[in-house]
Design a protein that fits this description.
This protein is an alpha/beta fold. The protein has 2 domains: 3-248 and 363-425, NAD(P)-binding Rossmann-like Domain (Rossmann fold); 252-359, Dihydrodipicolinate Reductase, domain 2 (2-Layer Sandwich). It has helices at residues 27-40, 50-53, 69-72, 93-100, 105-110, 112-115, 143-161, 187-195, 203-213, 230-239, 252-265, 282-286, 290-308, 314-317, 362-382, 411-425; strands at residues 3-4, 18-23, 81-87, 121-122, 165-170, 218-220, 242-245, 269-279, 321-328, 337-345, 351-359, 385-388. The strands form 2 sheets. Strands 1-12-7-6-5-2-3-4 form an 8-stranded mixed sheet, with helices on both faces. A 4-stranded mixed sheet has the order 9-8-10-11. It is globular. It starts with a strand and ends in an 18-residue tail after the last helix.
């Protein structure tokens, strides 16, 4: 569960400027940065962002209080946000955005003066963890040198832009799957591993370590273990910093967390759920590597069991077949296609089918999540929250949860938990939708 510095949180105002640093300055990061700047210039709307466009109900329905989230909660204004990050390629954000091919050239032309000035810092990189791509813009030396340089980068970035606070959101590639070992079992073992350049330490976790050591909240947008290890959680507790992850919930898994709760709510049985994807961007290329795909597969496959609870409903969900495939298909670029075939059963066991063909834009769906996570993590730190932020599970395929607890995957329960957390912090009544008229405090 989320930990607090005090019994009842009080939120400090977001004074000064906020820095958002992004490990990985590819399609997702450049789409996010360009999008925020387009919103700031009045060119576009922040569609998909709860912090910018969402409303929140307060009090009884009869009170009709439903302000915008950003008017209810003291979030950082977009006008005072500064961007930076790291990447193994040297391209500035304008060049990287054009290469990614997500946004139209006509929009990028209008933002070229801004995007062209944002250049990535040298990245921590080990080709054993991302085998399908490589680049020249990397930090020399071993893991301790990486950590020292990343920490210096954070401090220099903060000083250069006169920032009050900084948050990090991982937007880099999916690393090869790594089993947990004794090297990530404790902070002491981890730091010894840094000194020894232990190859069992993935680059993504070094970013998490550097962020936490520099007092920065950290969100993990990929299925990498990254901050989700005993060592990093120990550090987050020690530094009293909020963390969350993992793997942005965008295309196919977003659909699963919408559809599966509906099937369970109506007690419709499931025989099988076959999912396949075609994707042509850098993420798709990286996922051609079996190790990287295994990391992604673990997060994608974990969703249904948690939602459907086959141990409680063995007749309905005790023996379904679930398969997930991802195929690299360069012509599709960032326009991912997720296809699902769902075999269900109804009354008396009669079979039915649902078919979903979601032609989505991966980075377009991910960009508003980066924005919300950065602003909410900054808010969480100012509210005195630290450790795993389970109330931010809404944004992830494989949400982090406290030891011994299963993560919540149901999108609607996740949304209720998020909004109730905001109500709690701001001193408002929690909404349960009980709706009993004879209660004085009807909710």
């Amino acid at each position: 569960m989320t930990k607090m510095l005090r019994d009842k949180p009080a939120v400090d105002a977001p004074s000064g400027k906020l820095g958002i640093l992004l490990p990985g300055m590819g399609a997702v990061a450049t789409t996010f940065i360009a999008g925020v700047e387009a919103v700031r210039r009045g060119i576009s709307q922040p569609i998909g962002s709860m912090t910018q466009m969402g409303h929140i109900r307060l009090g009884k329905r009869t009170e009709n209080r439903q302000p915008l989230v950003k008017e209810f909660v003291p979030l950082q204004s977009l006008d005072s946000v500064v961007f930076g990050g790291w990447d193994i390629f040297e391209d500035d954000c304008l060049t990287a955005a054009r290469r990614a091919g997500v946004l139209e050239s006509s929009l990028l032309d209008k933002l070229s003066d801004f995007l062209g000035e944002i250049r990535p810092m040298k990245a921590a990189f080990d080709p054993e963890y991302v085998k399908r791509i490589s680049g020249p813009n990397v930090i020399p030396g071993g893991r301790r040198e990486w950590a020292n340089q990343l920490r210096k980068d954070i401090r220099d970035f903060k000083a250069r832009h006169g920032l009050e606070r900084v948050v990090l959101v991982w937007c880099g590639s999916t690393e090869s799957y790594a089993e947990e070992t004794e090297i990530t079992a404790s902070l002491a073992a981890y730091e010894a591993g840094l000194d020894q350049n232990d190859p069992r330490i993935p680059p993504s976790s070094v970013y998490a370590y550097a962020a936490l050591m520099e007092g920065c909240p950290y969100a993990n947008g990929a299925p990498n273990a990254s901050v989700d290890t005993p060592a990093m959680l120990e550090l987050a507790d020690k530094m009293k910093l909020p963390v969350c992850g993992k793997d942005f919930k965008t295309g196919q898994t977003l659909m699963k967390t919408i559809i599966a709760p509906g099937l369970k709510a109506r007690l419709l049985g499931l025989q099988g759920w076959f999912s396949t994807n075609i994707l042509g961007n850098r993420d798709g290329e990286v996922l051609e590597d079996p190790g990287s795909f295994k990391s992604k597969e673990v997060t994608k496959l974990s969703v249904l069991d948690t939602i459907l609870q086959p141990d409680l409903y063995p007749t309905l969900y005790g023996n379904y077949f679930h398969s997930v495939k991802i195929n690299y298909y360069p012509p599709r670029g960032d326009n991912k296609e997720g296809w699902d075939n769902i075999d269900i059963t109804g009354w008396l066991g009669y079979p039915m089918q649902i078919k979903i063909d979601f032609l989505c834009r991966d980075s377009i769906l991910a960009a508003p999540l980066v924005l919300d996570l950065a602003l909410y993590l900054d808010f969480a730190k100012r509210a005195g929250f630290y450790g795993i932020q389970e109330w931010l599970s809404f944004y992830f395929k494989s949400p982090m949860a406290a030891a011994g607890l299963l993560p919540e995957h149901d999108l609607f329960i996740q949304q209720q938990k998020l909004k109730n957390t905001l109500r709690y912090v701001m001193g408002e009544q929690l909404i349960t939708h009980l709706g009993l008229d004879y209660y004085e405090d009807e909710v």
